[in-house]
């Protein structure tokens, strides 16, 4: 299965685009970075301008519409040392790279790929020292960027350092590489040996948190990469935002949930697309999305139906539970403020809402209605 995957960072080398399209999209790539590869491009139906795989990786002029902000969840608020975020007591997030196999157009950290951004630490030793000095941290998420972009020996240094910390019991790697370039796994036995070593020799568990956004990304090569990782004893899960024009339909989500379950990659989270600058074209309305997700759940086994629909809000991870004719229900799945832990919330419905803040802005009006109905 040897195959050289070539990365593309210039639209001029996307031969399937016309000269006019490249020229129109150049102003988008001047603002938001562009990166793809020939493997991922081969999944696109270039005859369809609305092809979902194309929408994931090829720029659109709609990204230039003013909307949202670059750090939509205010991650900078939880940055403790360069390249490390500590939002929840037991979890640390280590930014290990500012490069991905592809740059998803809806990325909520697209600010990392801009020239004037330095949130990612080239040297993660300060972040590792922070984790070492905080014994309450029992799990660490390696992210970025995509950690599997790193050379295996660089990733090994990080994993070995974490393996030496008794209080760290879980390490998670957040990666889209099995969807974007499965040959990164297929062609690197040293990476697989590293995964196997961590899970069999350290007394800890390494998880690979995947990002399959659409069932067409689950190719023969992707399945092979999944099988190889599974043989190392590494549990795999999957998470994806719900994205307009990509996976915001019952049948697409049903197929995605089924295919993930069939190959032993449990669906973990469906995320509400964050209101990040450039993302308006990908954002869906929460209440419509909730209906789509619930309809998809009815068509799959319990293994697929256990996926949670959440928002990664500044205040915590908020699960979207359900709705009635008048109200919508939320719960803090994780909360930055301990006082909010497990908090159940009821708000008046807002059919145009794209984010949690669209409900909280109406809270006073809601309280009046609640008093009239229940008091």
TrEMBL record:
PROSITE patterns: RADICAL_SAM. It comes from the Bacteria. It holds the Pfam family Radical_SAM. Residues 86-314 form the Radical SAM core domain. Keywords: 4Fe-4S, Iron, Iron-sulfur, Metal-binding, Pyridoxal phosphate, S-adenosyl-L-methionine. NCBIfam families: KamA family radical SAM protein (TIGR00238). Belongs to the radical SAM superfamily. KamA family. This is KamA family radical SAM protein. It comes from Aquifex aeolicus. The lineage of its organism: Bacteria, Pseudomonadati, Aquificota, Aquificia, Aquificales.
């Amino acid at each position: 299965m040897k195959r050289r995957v070539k990365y593309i960072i210039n639209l001029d080398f996307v031969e399937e685009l016309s000269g006019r399209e490249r020229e129109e999209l150049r102003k988008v790539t001047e603002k938001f970075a562009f990166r793809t590869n020939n493997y991922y491009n081969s999944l696109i139906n270039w005859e369809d301008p609305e092809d979902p795989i194309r929408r994931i990786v090829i720029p659109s002029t709609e990204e230039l519409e003013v909307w949202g902000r670059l750090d939509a969840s205010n991650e900078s608020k939880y940055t403790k040392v360069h390249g490390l975020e500590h939002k929840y007591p037991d979890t640390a997030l280590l930014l290990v790279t500012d490069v991905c196999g592809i740059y998803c157009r809806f990325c909520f950290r697209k600010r990392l790929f801009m020239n004037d951004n330095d949130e990612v630490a080239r040297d993660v030793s300060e972040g590792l020292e922070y984790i070492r000095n905080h014994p309450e941290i029992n799990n660490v998420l390696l992210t970025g960027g995509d950690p599997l972009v790193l050379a295996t020996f660089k990733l090994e240094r990080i994993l070995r350092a974490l393996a030496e910390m008794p209080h760290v019991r879980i390490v998670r790697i957040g990666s889209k590489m099995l969807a974007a370039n499965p040959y990164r796994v297929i062609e690197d036995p040293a990476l697989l040996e590293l995964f196997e070593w961590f899970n069999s020799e350290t007394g800890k568990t390494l998880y690979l948190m995947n990002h399959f956004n659409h069932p067409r990304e689950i190719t023969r090569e992707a399945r092979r990469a999944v099988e190889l990782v599974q043989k190392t004893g590494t549990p795999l899960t999957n998470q994806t935002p719900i994205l307009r024009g990509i996976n915001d339909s019952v049948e697409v989500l049903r197929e995605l949930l089924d295919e993930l379950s069939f190959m032993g990659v449990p669906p973990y989270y469906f995320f509400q697309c964050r209101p990040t600058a450039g993302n308006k074209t990908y954002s869906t309305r929460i209440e419509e999305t909730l209906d789509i997700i619930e309809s998809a759940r009815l068509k799959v086994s319990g293994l697929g139906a256990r996926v949670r629909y959440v928002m990664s809000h500044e205040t915590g991870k908020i699960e979207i539970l359900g709705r009635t004719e008048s109200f919508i229900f939320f719960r803090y799945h994780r909360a930055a403020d301990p006082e909010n832990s497990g908090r159940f919330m009821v708000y008046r419905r807002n059919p145009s809402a794209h984010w949690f803040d669209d409900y909280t802005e109406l809270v006073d009006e809601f309280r009046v209605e609640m008093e009239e109905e229940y008091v």
